Amino acid sequence: MKHDFNKISRQFRMKGTLLSCQPYGSGHINETFLLKTEQQDSPDYILQRINSTIFADVPGLMENIRKVTSHLHNKLIETGMGNPEREILTLIPTIEERAYLIDEKGNYWRMYLYIWPNKSYDIVPDSNIAFEGGKMFGKFQKLLSDLPGDELVETIPDFHNIEKRLDTFYQILQEDKFNRAASIKDEILFIEKYRSEMQTILQLGNEGHIPKRVTHNDTKFNNVLLDENNRGLCVIDLDTVMPGFIHYDFGDTIRTATNTGAEDEPDLSKVEMDIEIFKGFAGGFLSETKDILCKKEIDYLVFSGRLLTYTIGLRFLTDYLNGDNYFRTHRTNHNIERCRAQFKLFRSQLRQEEQMDRIIKSLTS
Ligand code: ADP
Ligand code: GN1
Ligand code: MG
């Protein structure tokens, strides 16, 4: 789809004039562009077309982001440390002082200050980098622990609810509109095998053993920016910040950071869980959170890696059966390859569970 970036950018309170606007990053949901300005002394910007099919309540979502970023901003000012423009996403309002713009075609746009220089990793190269990412997500959790969850809207209802995700999967499997069910026999057996164990976190929540917190819910490792020296800088992609369990955040970074291969690696021999990266990430995360987490939450951190790997694998598989209409795909079979890589990673985690348990014990005792 062609967009008139000149016209769009003029409707935001940005400094300088548009030099170029190019697709940016590797997100699967929104369309992201890096907008460069002509003037040396003007910053550059991130312009995003928000996926309003997936996020049905964009005004509610943007209000969440406003609340979360201003809460984080106040915390940073209280401590008198750090640079808010580099450590927290800064929304650029429209000339009408709104947080987002609707263009004449009905597209929703928002603009952020571009945080630069930064580094971000789809594959994590070493345990120090994993530690920094863990510390950032842990700190994010800690700083939001006094933001009341009922002030946030649920931007995607039941986002990590595995029971609902399974219901949807079986319904779509039965319909099999794209005649793909015959090619996923092994995956269906896999789903069945672990189905009941995967209910554990929901059950602990329902029985009141673990609290709902304000969680990020999309803690893929590339949703944290590091600085030029690989020190933690800023947590980004705040679209799904809403009430959830700590396991959703811990687990999704285990899923993405510890994988020795890419999320969509077709050569499954390259996909394993790297225990040193696990140690680094867990060390960083717990250095910020171990005093706020209860024992039951800590007891299930290791399990959470498998839960999120299973959940996202199931979502890729569901999208494959459903004709690839949720996650952006770049090749035929992309979603089924993503799913297979997740299930391989799940098995690798299962084999290393005892080692992970020992690491968590040593970090929390
Ligand atoms: P998606 O939901 O599609 O993943 P993100 O909000 O994560 O969208 O943005 C996509 C990518 O754009 C990120 O992975 C990151 O590389 C980059 N990005 C987003 N916001 C900023 C920012 N304010 N400064 C620098 N880079 C950013
Ligand atoms: C999506 O937005 P992005 O690309 O960071 C997805 C996550 C998945 C991830 C898998 C809103 O994340 O839930 O874990 O892809 N975000 C949404 O890579 O569905
Ligand atoms: Mg992202």
What would you say about this model in short?
It contains 13 helices and ten strands. It is of the alpha+beta class and 365 residues long.
Q: What is the secondary structure topology, with strand pairs?
A:
Layout: H1 5-10, E1 18-23, E2 31-37, E3 45-50, H2 58-79, H3 84-87, E4 91-92, E5 101-102, E6 108-113, H4 127-143, H5 162-175, H6 185-194, H7 200-206, E7 213-215, E8 224-226, E9 232-235, E10 242-244, H8 246-257, H9 275-289, H10 295-299, H11 301-321, H12 334-351, H13 353-364
Antiparallel strand pairs: 1-2, 2-3, 3-6, 4-6, 5-6, 7-10, 8-9
Helix pairs in contact: 4-8, 4-9, 5-11, 8-9, 8-11, 9-13, 11-12
Bound molecules: adenosine-5'-diphosphate (ADP), 2-acetamido-2-deoxy-1-O-phosphono-alpha-D-glucopyranose and magnesium ion (MG).
Which terms would index this structure?
single chain, 365 residues, alpha+beta, Phosphorylase Kinase, domain 1, Aminoglycoside 3'-phosphotransferase, Chain: A, domain 2, 2 domains, 10 strands, globular, binds adenosine-5'-diphosphate, binds 2-acetamido-2-deoxy-1-O-phosphono-alpha-D-glucopyranose
Verbal overview:
The chain is an alpha+beta fold. It has two domains: 5-113, Phosphorylase Kinase, domain 1, CATH 3.30.200.20; 127-364, Aminoglycoside 3'-phosphotransferase, Chain: A, domain 2 (Alpha-Beta Complex). The protein has 13 helices and ten strands. The chain has helices at 5-10, 58-79, 84-87, 127-143, 162-175, 185-194, 200-206, 246-257, 275-289, 295-299, 301-321, 334-351, 353-364; strands at residues 18-23, 31-37, 45-50, 91-92, 101-102, 108-113, 213-215, 224-226, 232-235, 242-244. The strands form three sheets. Strands 1, 2, 3, 4, 5 and 6 form a six-stranded antiparallel beta sheet that branches. Strands 7-10 form a two-stranded antiparallel ribbon. β1 (18-23) and β2 form a beta hairpin. It is globular and about 55 Å long. The mean pLDDT is 97. The structure holds adenosine-5'-diphosphate (ADP), 2-acetamido-2-deoxy-1-O-phosphono-alpha-D-glucopyranose and magnesium ion (MG). Adenosine-5'-diphosphate (ADP) binds next to loops.
